[in-house]
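User: Can you recover a sequence for this backbone? Please restate the input before giving your answer.

Assistant: Of course. Working from this structure:
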């Protein structure tokens, strides 16, 4: 059966709704990004995010139904992100989903945002990728999972400090580039030399898996201060080698992400890797993961760029898997930050 699922997402700074049939066929997708509202603060402000979700939730839902030319009567179930994320943001989407479910009698399915990011990477595949390793890399998460099915994920490792996307955002700030930092650092990096500066790569203890990006971020800061930790940070316009910094920084992040992910695949004895989350948009990450994976007989799959960053297509997609597996939430479905 190819049921039509309405997905609702509001866990961070995107308000999104989508209609997806049978976990694959996208009939409509609307995303309202709050990036402009948070840009001047250099990061997401939770209080502003919740307020914006309240303003946008119903208009985004209406726009989604209009895009598909369908009414709620065509929908078979409502899927909503209920964890993890900013609690005040999650509660807005959850409130809308519960209200719709109560008003229409449609079943409600709770979806895990991280599992949904990974599901996005599987939506265009012809064959099952399981068992596989999933790397989730976004502004809030950097973690490796072993996945044996869309709803069977076990975490293998996570970051000790910053998420990879967060590191991009902080380095962009130091270089005077716009928020969010991933796309802007990556763009500048194309003009620089990847081997210009030997930034450090984190190596976990022998045999272990894991990530850390705070040492790299500090190394970028010290480099900009001319190696003198106590010197003032130069103004962005006074950085002569900004493109080399961007390129060498990006290479260090990509290097660590690729090495740990392929190592996890070898440890778990699997030959498929799924990469998901906002940082999965990164072109260099795609290039290196696919090339180095191919050398080891490991296939790496990334979602379409629009499905890397937060969206509701992935929520409706995974919601369909949950619906088919018999998951049904009641109005007691709770939001969870973690
Ligand atoms: O998944 P996402 O939209 O939101 C979270 O759940 O965090 O990811 C946003 C993050 C931001 O930190 C942004 O800088 C990063 O993804 N990002 C990128 C790229 N595009 C977005 N990082 C590196 N390269 C990119 N092209
Ligand atoms: Zn996300």
């Amino acid at each position: 059966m190819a049921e039509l699922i309405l997905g609702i997402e509001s866990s961070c700074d995107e308000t999104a709704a989508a209609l997806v049939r049978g976990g694959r066929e996208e009939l409509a997708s609307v995303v309202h990004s709050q990036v402009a509202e948070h840009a001047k603060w250099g990061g997401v402000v939770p209080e502003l995010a919740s307020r914006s979700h309240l303003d946008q939730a119903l208009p985004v839902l209406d726009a989604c139904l209009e895009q598909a030319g369908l009414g709620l009567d065509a929908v078979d179930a409502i899927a909503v992100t209920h964890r993890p994320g900013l609690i005040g943001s999650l509660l807005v989407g959850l409130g809308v989903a519960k209200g719709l479910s109560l008003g229409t009698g449609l079943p409600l399915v709770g979806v895990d945002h991280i599992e949904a990011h990974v599901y996005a990477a599987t939506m265009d595949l012809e064959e099952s990728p399981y068992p596989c390793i999933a790397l989730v890399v976004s502004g809030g998460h950097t973690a490796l999972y072993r996945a044996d099915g869309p709803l069977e994920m076990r975490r293998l490792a996570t970051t000790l400090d910053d998420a990879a996307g967060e590191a991009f955002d902080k380095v962009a700030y130091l270089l005077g580039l716009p928020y969010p930092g991933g796309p802007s650092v990556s763009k500048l990096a194309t003009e620089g030399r990847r081997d210009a500066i030997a930034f450090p790569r984190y190596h976990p203890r022998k045999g272990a898996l894991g990530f850390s990006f705070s040492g790299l971020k500090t190394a970028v800061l010290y480099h900009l201060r001319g190696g003198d930790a106590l010197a003032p940070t130069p103004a962005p316009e006074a950085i002569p080698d900004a493109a080399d910094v961007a390129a060498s920084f990006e290479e260090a992040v990509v290097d660590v992400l690729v090495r740990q992910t392929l190592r996890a695949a070898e440890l778990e004895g699997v030959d498929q890797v799924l990469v998901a989350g906002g940082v999965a948009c990164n072109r260099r990450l795609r290039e290196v993961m696919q090339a180095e994976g191919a050398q080891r007989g490991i296939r790496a799959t990334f979602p379409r760029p629009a499905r890397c960053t937060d969206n509701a297509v992935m929520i409706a997609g995974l919601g369909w898997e949950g619906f088919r597996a018999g998951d049904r939430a009641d109005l007691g479905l709770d939001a969870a930050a973690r």
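That completes the design. The radius of gyration is 20 Å.
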